[in-house]
């Protein structure tokens, strides 16, 4: 029973010293671990700015949580520091996260406002796209010297604007139709999609990929060093059991080699210890955190890492997988995607777009596909699987802003799916219409 007259909040924290270091996206570390080679490539690519040459365009890619943005910020700061010491004109904009923009207009508008003071900001609408590009070129020429623009999650730039934007911006000073005559423009693009450059037009690929730097996943030993560094800052002295950091590192290495996942495990384990009123964080707390981290991580994907169309495609793939037929073909995924998008009041994209969304999900390691030969029927089709437990995906979707797209009877279908899996039940083939009738869309 709760005493309503007693304040339940505690003014002290016996476990955490500072939680911010566990929020990787909002904390800038003083030390960069196990990225010496990538930093060397970066320095070599940007050295031209310091010695008087035009800035190079740099494309940085790799999975999430492997240090791309942290290294970019560190190199940016060092470059600005050196340029100031050598009296070299340099203006750096970004990183600007492209995930937040769904049109070229919105992104370029933001870039313009990065150059302007608070009294001269462009409104969010009212001009043509050509006009805001012109404003951007005018701002670049006005500051002059070397201008370096850093775009994070560059693969989120809308496809219909991607080629023009990524080709024109780095070459703006060479285009006689822009007002740029003295400024020198360089672009740094950061992407989680390893195949992003492959889908660009050849001329854009050549421009964007002048210098490419690949970040691979961390191994368990590297993660132990990195997580240990953050843990020393975040937790109070002597509260972590000796197995906590190694266990979090081992689990993260087995999954994706992702620092963010390891930090989430440490934070969750610390919270479990604090809730219990324990003196320290134990192996048991850490194992409990790993048991729940999957849903938390997937929720983060839904809320932060996936576009709305990617999220709906991911949910549709999961729903197709748990149906009695247990087969997520592209056609079936599209039919379900259309239903959940329409029922939740979201825009329905073309079937051709689904291939693009599925490919993007595959690049992020969320789905995988297998090609099936149809034999005498002729042709081939692709069957998809999700790489995480469907239960975790659906639980995350239900907790996310896409909960209105989840069919109301999903738990019943999921229960039957789990029973079928346990008994190796093979359901009879059903038509697409029959499968469609399984779901209750509200």
From TrEMBL:
Pfam families: AAA_22, Cdc6_lid, WHD_Cdc6. Gene3D superfamilies: 1.10.8.60, P-loop containing nucleotide triphosphate hydrolases, Winged helix-like DNA-binding domain superfamily/Winged helix DNA-binding domain. It comes from the Archaea. InterPro entries: AAA_22, Cdc6_C, Cdc6_lid, ORC1/CDC6, Orc1/Cdc6_arc, P-loop_NTPase, WH-like_DNA-bd_sf, WH_DNA-bd_sf. ATP binds at residues 66-70, 218. Residues 314-398 form the Cdc6 C-terminal domain. GO terms for biological process: cell division; DNA replication. One of its GO terms (molecular function) is ATP hydrolysis activity. SMART domains: Cdc6_C (SM01074). Keywords: ATP-binding, Cell cycle, Cell division, DNA replication, Nucleotide-binding. Belongs to the CDC6/cdc18 family. Involved in regulation of DNA replication. This is ORC1-type DNA replication protein. It comes from Haloarcula mannanilytica.
């Amino acid at each position: 029973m709760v005493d309503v007259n007693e304040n339940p909040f505690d003014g002290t924290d016996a476990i955490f010293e500072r939680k911010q270091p566990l929020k990787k996206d909002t904390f800038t570390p003083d030390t960069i671990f196990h990225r010496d080679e990538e930093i060397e490539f970066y320095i070599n690519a940007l050295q031209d700015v310091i010695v008087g040459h035009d800035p190079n365009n740099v494309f940085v890619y790799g999975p999430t949580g492997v240090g791309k943005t942290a290294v970019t910020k560190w190199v940016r700061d060092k470059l600005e520091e050196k340029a100031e010491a050598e009296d070299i004109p340099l203006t750096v904009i970004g990183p600007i996260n492209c995930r937040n923009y769904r049109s070229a207009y919105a992104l370029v508008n933001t870039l313009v406002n990065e150059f302007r003071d608070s009294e001269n900001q462009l409104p969010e609408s009212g001009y043509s796209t050509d006009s805001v590009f012109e404003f951007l070129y005018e701002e670049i020429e006005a500051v002059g010297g070397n201008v370096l623009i850093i775009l994070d999650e560059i693969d989120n730039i809308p496809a219909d604007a991607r080629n023009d934007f990524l080709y024109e911006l780095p070459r703006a000073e060479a285009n006689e139709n822009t007002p740029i005559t003295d400024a020198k423009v360089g672009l740094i693009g950061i992407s989680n999609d390893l195949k992003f450059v492959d889908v660009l037009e050849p001329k854009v690929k050549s421009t964007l990929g002048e210098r490419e730097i690949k970040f691979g996943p961390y191994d368990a030993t590297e993660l132990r060093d990195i997580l240990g560094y953050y843990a020393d800052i975040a937790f109070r002295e002597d509260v972590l059991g000796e197995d906590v950091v190694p266990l979090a590192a081992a689990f993260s290495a087995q999954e994706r080699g992702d620092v963010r996942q390891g930090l989430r495990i440490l934070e969750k384990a610390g919270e479990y210890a604090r809730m219990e009123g324990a003196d320290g964080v134990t192996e048991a707390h850490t194992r409990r955190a790993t048991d729940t981290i999957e849903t938390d991580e997937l929720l983060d994907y839904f809320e932060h890492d996936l576009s709305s169309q990617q999220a709906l495609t991911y949910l549709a793939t999961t729903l197709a997988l748990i149906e009695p037929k247990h087969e997520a073909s592209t056609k079936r995924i599209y039919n379900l995607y259309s239903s959940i998008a329409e029922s939740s009041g979201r825009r329905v994209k073309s079937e051709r777009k689904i291939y693009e969304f599925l490919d993007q999900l595959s690049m992020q390691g969320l789905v995988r596909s297998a090609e099936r030969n149809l034999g005498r029927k002729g042709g081939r089709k692709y069957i998809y699987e999700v790489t995480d437990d469907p239960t975790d995906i659906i639980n995350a979707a239900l907790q996310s802003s896409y909960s209105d797209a989840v069919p109301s009877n999903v738990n019943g279908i999921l229960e039957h799916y789990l029973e079928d899996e346990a008994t190796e039940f093979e359901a009879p083939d059903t038509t697409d219409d029959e499968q469609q009738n399984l779901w209750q869309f509200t």
